[in-house]
From TrEMBL, chain A:
Residues of the SERTA domain: 39-86
Region (Disordered): 1-35, 160-213
Comp. bias regions, Acidic residues: 174-203
InterPro entries: E2F-SERTA_domain_protein (IPR052262), SERTA_dom (IPR009263)
Biased composition (Basic and acidic residues): 204-213
GO cellular component terms, A-Z: nucleus
Record's protein name: Cell division cycle associated 4
One Pfam match: SERTA
Superkingdom: Eukaryota
TrEMBL record, chain B:
Quaternary state and interactors: PP2A consists of a common heterodimeric core enzyme, composed of a 36 kDa catalytic subunit (subunit C) and a 65 kDa constant regulatory subunit (PR65 or subunit A), that associates with a variety of regulatory subunits.
Listed InterPro entries: PP2A_PR55, WD40/YVTN_repeat-like_dom_sf, WD40_repeat_dom_sf, WD40_rpt
Family the UniProt entry places it in: Belongs to the phosphatase 2A regulatory subunit B family.
Listed Gene3D superfamilies: YVTN repeat-like/Quinoprotein amine dehydrogenase
Pfam families registered for this protein in UniProt: WD40 (PF00400)
UniProt GO cellular component terms: protein phosphatase type 2A complex
Organism: Oryzias melastigma
Protein name per its UniProtKB record: Serine/threonine-protein phosphatase 2A 55 kDa regulatory subunit B
Length: 302, 453
């Protein structure tokens, strides 16, 4: 798809397919086959981005409900569209087939589960330099070609800088308090995907048969797990003091609403079974951050 | 437009572009006469500016240089402190979300200020005299030795330096589970409303332990939540009418005479979606960030991410006017979503005659639209490109065609410099623009008073 070594520039073609848009409810499943690869790539990126945003509600102050609702609606919209054109099923089958032993974001897991096929062997992405990847995230393209088999290609990881094509001249504007958490979270994701890439060579393409699953079942099987500890020793050292359970979904949910659950977040539901220690360690982590803020205030001298 | 007067904030020359988070201005509001201008910031402080009285008429006639009405700091006070919700283990920010002045009834001024959870009523009063000549106390207030008192005197009021006292008179707490985004004083002078993401309450200014819930859009199952309230305002003349906007781009006009709980709107204002422009971001950019009644009460002004719209209260099917604030951002929505700028909430304001509307944008730009001609102009609130008393020149964002000198490319826009908060003087052409931690006040010297056109 892309010649080896070419860095893909970010353009914003999400708007373009809309005009050619026959991705509406009337589109038959076969339309997925003709789905522009760039459109589905963008859509997948958007889904990843939205999931990350939903998780990374930071926990010192109650997150903005309006923003959360708008992001959740976007996720729902993408999910509906993907269900209609059949792409959703592929993702969930990949998920079902996945036997990734380490804890990690399922979004990450699904995406890096399938590596590029034998079609272009020279295409496996090289790891990007760590520095540039501060707040980048990877994307994967799921393309259906042919009648039965599906071919999945892995696109190179994108750093934020290339994603924005440098025009804005700045990184994403997270809230100040988010900075530490977000950078680290996504760094760890980068590591996850790199790790997965090596594992995924054994991924079983046969599992991607066109199975039928309802959107609900599918959505419900998504789990958000702990980010995996980074394999790179340098990175490990860098993040040795980060408590991964801080990004646990329980803490997200606690913060988001007074009620424990928040939909459409069936996506987030299954977490409750996950880490019993989450809450206590997250609250201690929170108090650590409070202390950090306090110390920063003293240093700044306000 | 004329001069620039700037309020000095903390001097950070040693940290060039560093802005103290607490100094970021989060709301700006003139009082009903325009003599007072209040700003609230993220640190929970309120700063009130007062306009210097205009020079006397005879001075103007003699052609002397008049110092016409600059705004100077009148009073500063800490309105809200950071708080902690022990039940949820979350901090409550002290940031002032909104300030609204009450109509003046006596010598004192009253204003309402709110953070995410608590609304407070403040009394601002002046003291410029003090009693002197007490019998039992000396000048410093110490009790006199009775044996030294030989005669009685009547204390006299003597003028002193002006002192401005600000005291909290009411605290309206525990009314909101979600974050308060709007407050609006009713034209009846006795009540006001406060709106959070899911509910709107009506309070009486004198009663702090009770409020009436007038709108509740919280679903039984929070998983079904898809829409939140983004802003609300009372009608300027009809005390029974108010409007609230939603994250789905709808406006609802409610009549409190219809029922106690106004979940059912009297009128629903919604523009049908343009199928040609449909994208994953359509809903997000349609979310209304601010709604304001016109002064005459016949129109509504709303701001969504890319446009400002004027609605006629008598026509629900769509706005009567739409103004493109920064249409060139439409192709950048994905990036703006990634860096969260797409969630920025811009305010919008009317001028006193409802003939001009104004709203903010990025890169320290703000836009003004003349409703008569439909034309818009871009201005900049940035210290380094305008000196005090210099004429503001218009700016332009280059979007194609012939490029002029001074045009700014879309890719060079600074998205950290956003103009979210602003206010327009109630009767004159004076505007107050909040640019991060700086306040800019612009006056129109050519047409200082608004003329009805």
């Amino acid at each position: 798809m892309f010649p080896k070594g070419t860095k893909r520039k970010f353009s914003d073609p999400v708007e373009e397919p809309a005009s050619s848009g026959d991705q509406g409810p009337a589109a038959p499943p076969a339309a997925a086959r003709t789905l522009s690869s760039s459109y589905s790539l963008q859509r997948q990126s958007l889904l990843d981005m939205s999931l990350i945003k939903l998780q990374l509600c930071h926990m010192l102050v109650e997150p903005n409900l309006c923003r959360s609702v708008l992001i959740a609606n976007t996720v729902r919209q993408i999910q509906e569209e993907m269900t209609q054109d059949g792409t959703w099923q592929i993702m969930t089958q990949a998920l079902a087939a996945a036997q990734c032993p380490a804890d990690r974001l399922v979004a990450t897991e699904v995406l890096c589960r399938q590596t590029e096929t034998g079609a272009q062997p020279g295409q496996s992405p090289k790891p990007f330099p760590v520095v540039g990847l501060e707040e980048g995230y990877h994307s994967e393209e799921v393309v259906m070609e042919g009648e039965v088999e599906t071919e999945v290609t892995m696109s190179p990881q994108l750093s934020t800088n290339s994603y924005l094509a440098g025009p804005f001249g700045m990184g994403p504007c997270w809230d100040e308090e988010d900075d530490d958490g977000d950078c680290e979270e996504e760094e760890e994701e980068e590591e996850d995907s790199e790790e997965c890439m090596s594992e995924g060579d054994d991924a079983d393409r046969d599992h991607l048969s066109a199975d039928s699953r309802t959107g609900d079942q599918v959505f419900g099987t998504f789990e958000i797990k702990h980010p995996a500890p980074p394999p790179d020793p340098a990175l490990e050292e860098l993040f040795s003091d980060v408590d991964p359970s801080y990004y646990d979904l329980d803490t997200v949910l606690t913060g988001m609403q007074s009620t424990p659950k928040m939909g459409p977040y069936d996506l987030l539901e299954s977490l409750s079974s996950h880490t019993p220690t989450a809450l206590s360690s997250s609250s201690s982590c929170r108090s650590d951050l409070n202390e950090l803020d306090h110390i920063m205030e003293i240093i700044v001298g306000s | 437009m004329g001069e620039v007067a700037e309020s000095p904030k903390i001097n950070h020359t040693f940290l060039r572009d560093y802005v103290t988070e607490a100094d970021v201005i989060s709301t700006v509001e003139f009082n009903q006469t325009g003599d007072l201008l209040a700003t609230g910031d993220k640190g929970g402080r309120v700063v009130i500016f007062q306009r210097e009285s205009e020079s006397k008429g005879e001075l103007e006639e003699t052609g002397e240089n008049v110092d016409s009405g600059e705004y100077n700091v009148y009073s500063t006070f800490q309105s809200h402190e950071p708080d902690f919700d022990y039940l949820k283990s979350l901090e409550i920010e002290e940031k002032i979300n909104k300030i609204r002045w009450l109509p003046q009834q006596n010598a004192a001024h009253f204003l309402l200020s709110t953070n995410d959870k608590t609304i407070k009523l403040w009394k601002v009063s002046e003291r410029d005299k003090r009693p002197e000549g007490y019998n039992l106390k000396d000048e410093e207030g110490r009790l006199k030795d009775i044996s030294t008192i030989t005669s009685l005197q009547v204390p006299v009021l003597k003028p002193t330096d002006l002192m401005v006292e600000v005291r909290p008179r009411r605290v309206f707490a525990n009314g909101h589970t979600y974050h308060v985004n709007s407050i609006s004083v009713n034209s009846d002078g006795e009540t006001y409303l406060s709106a959070d993401d899911l509910r709107i309450n009506m309070w009486h200014l004198g009663i702090t332990d009770r409020s009436f819930n007038i709108v509740d859009i919280k679903p039984t199952n929070m998983e079904d939540l898809t829409e939140v309230i983004t802003a609300a305002e009372f009608h300027p003349h009809h005390c029974h009418l108010f409007v609230y906007s939603s994250s789905k781009g709808t406006l609802r006009l409610c009549d409190m005479r219809a029922s106690a709980l106004c979940d059912k709107h009297t009128k629903l204002f919604e523009e049908p979606e343009d199928p040609g422009n449909r994208s994953f971001f359509s809903e997000i950019i349609s979310s209304v960030s601010d709604v304001k009644f016109s002064h005459n009460g016949r129109y509504l002004l709303t701001r969504d991410y890319l446009t400002a719209k004027v609605w006629d209260l008598n026509m629900e099917k769509g706005p009567v006017e739409t103004y493109q604030v920064h249409e060139y951002l439409r192709s950048k929505l994905c990036s703006l979503y990634e860096n969260d700028c797409i969630f920025d909430k811009f305010e919008c304001v009317w001028n006193s005659s409802d003939s001009v509307i104004m709203t903010g944008a990025y890169n320290s730009f703000f836009r003004m639209f003349d409703r008569e001609t439909g034309r818009g102009v871009t201005l900049e609130a940035w210290r380094e490109s305008s000196k005090p008393r210099a004429v503001l020149r218009t700016r332009r964002v280059y979007t194609g065609g012939k490029r002029r000198r001074g045009d700014v490319g879309v890719d060079s826009l600074d998205f950290t410099k956003k103009i979210l908060h602003m206010a327009w003087h109630p009767s004159e052409n004076i505007i107050a623009i909040a640019a991060t931690n700086n306040l800019y006040i612009f006056q129109d010297r050519v047409n200082p008073d608004t003329q009805t056109q």
